[in-house]
Design a protein that fits this description.
With 445 residues, this protein is α+β, with helices and mostly antiparallel strands. Helices cover 68% and strands 16% of the residues.
């Protein structure tokens, strides 16, 4: 037993130190590091970067080298004496060729522009994914803090009702209060105990959801630290709806991504139309070969003399290809590119409408919350005074237990409403930043 106590004595500090403590900023950092969607976006961006390099390389000439060797065994035609005979011959050939596309209907140029545009679009998509991760993490974190505050209020309410229950029990025993007051207070305590259980369950759900967003081990002990909320600094912003909509349409990464998709579709249409134009290519070839049957004046020529001197051939040429009919493939590809371009424009209009709707709703909610902050502060002050007054009246027998319980319930409800409005105000500010496309900038994207 003594050894066990010593082990616990030395291990408890280590266990306490192992408990992870997270702030909101640290939670967002972990979420950005662990989120698989952001890693997928990074992979897509790397692929898009490689596609840009590939499109740039299309302007360079191609270079190919070849080396072939063969052995022929059997009856063969002998050119020297115009007869057939059985024999074995050896041949070796090699060459280097290069080809350069001089003109192809501007396909290379538009393909490079499309690749660069797609790369910028992938960057915008990654930024929006990053903003969504920051927003979701902040929302989950603040929801957990709110549920924790509501649990504290519910526990405080339960403790207050238990104190009143003990007072009522003592008063019933001496006969200064009727027994019905005892039953009434017992009912209030039971109801408050249920509220505590419900608050604990809500907090557990919020913690599970936040752990899921952070992709941490659910069994790991994590302490989430609450940022200090200074009500004096929670000053309402002077917002202009039209200005907010204009900022969102010009700065939001999802809007930028869709605009880039339109440009990429336009370049895809130009690439498809390039098949209507003739193409011009230049080529340079350098070839050589060796045959054991080759001779000069009935004298065999050595491999080195043939392969490196006598059998070398060079050629330079140009080729032009004029499309006449390719079974309507080009026309179909062009029509398909046109449809994709029109759909991209329609998608942009839909996003613009969605932005206006989101900003308008967030603006109205924000204005409403600004009014609620002032209203809940007044309501909390009034409920606190009413509770204190009813408690004093109850102690001197001027108020009933029902009146005191009602004043207590109103006071606790006012405290709960106040906490919810304060956190909802923080929620709404984050929501406005998300809709305006500011979250990634604030987090140092």
């Amino acid at each position: 037993m003594r050894n066990l106590l010593l082990l616990l004595f030395f291990c408890l500090p280590v266990l306490a130190q192992a408990q992870q403590r997270l702030t909101l900023d640290k939670a967002i950092e972990i979420s950005l590091e662990n989120n698989f969607q952001l890693r997928e976006a990074e992979n897509n961006l790397s692929l898009s970067r490689a596609q840009v390099r590939s499109a740039q390389a299309e302007f360079l000439p191609s270079l190919n080298a070849s080396l072939n060797g063969n052995q022929n065994v059997g009856r063969q035609f002998v050119q020297e004496d115009a007869s057939f005979t059985d024999r074995t011959t050896y041949n070796v050939s090699g060459g280097i060729s290069t080809n350069l596309a001089i003109f192809g209907g501007f396909e290379n140029i538009n393909n490079l522009r499309r690749s660069r545009t797609n790369y910028r679009r992938e960057e915008a998509d990654r930024t929006r994914i990053r903003e969504s991760i920051i927003f979701n993490t902040a929302m989950r974190y603040l929801q957990l803090l709110l549920d924790r505050e509501l649990l504290d209020i519910a526990e405080q309410n339960l403790e207050t009702s238990k104190v009143q229950l003990r007072q009522v029990e003592a008063q019933v025993e001496v006969g200064s209060r009727p027994t019905v007051d005892l039953y009434q207070q017992q009912s209030v305590v039971a109801s408050n105990e249920l509220q505590v259980v419900q608050a604990e369950n809500a907090l557990s759900v919020s913690r599970t959801q936040l752990i899921r967003v952070l992709q941490l081990d659910p069994l790991e002990e994590v302490q989430f630290e609450a940022p200090e909320i200074d009500e004096s600094k929670m000053l309402p912003q002077d917002l202009n709806l039209e200005e907010m909509i204009s900022i969102a349409l010009s700065s939001r990464s999802d809007v930028q991504s869709q605009r880039l998709s339109i440009n990429a579709s336009r370049y895809s249409l130009a690439v498809a139309r390039a098949a209507y134009y003739p193409s011009l290519n230049a080529s340079v070839n350098f070839n050589t070969r060796y045959s054991d049957q080759y001779s000069v004046n009935n004298q065999s020529v050595a491999f080195g003399d043939q392969f490196f001197e006598q059998m070398i051939s060079r050629s330079v040429g140009f080729s032009i290809s004029i499309p006449i009919f390719n079974r309507m493939n080009t026309r179909t590809n062009v029509e398909q590119a046109k449809v994709q371009y029109r759909n991209a424009r329609l998608a942009l209009e839909d996003i613009r409408y969605e932005v206006r709707e989101e900003i308008g709703q967030a603006y109205n909610d924000y204005i409403s919350l600004v009014k609620e902050i002032d209203a809940t502060e007044k309501a909390l002050l009034a409920a606190e005074r009413a509770y204190e007054t009813q408690q004093e009246r109850y102690e001197i027998g001027a108020a009933s237990l029902i009146e005191l319980n009602q004043a207590t319930a109103n006071y606790m409800e006012a405290m709960s409403n106040r906490e919810q409005v304060l956190y909802n105000f923080l929620f709404q500010e984050k929501l406005l930043d998300y809709y305006l496309g500011r979250l990634a900038e604030e987090q140092g994207a």
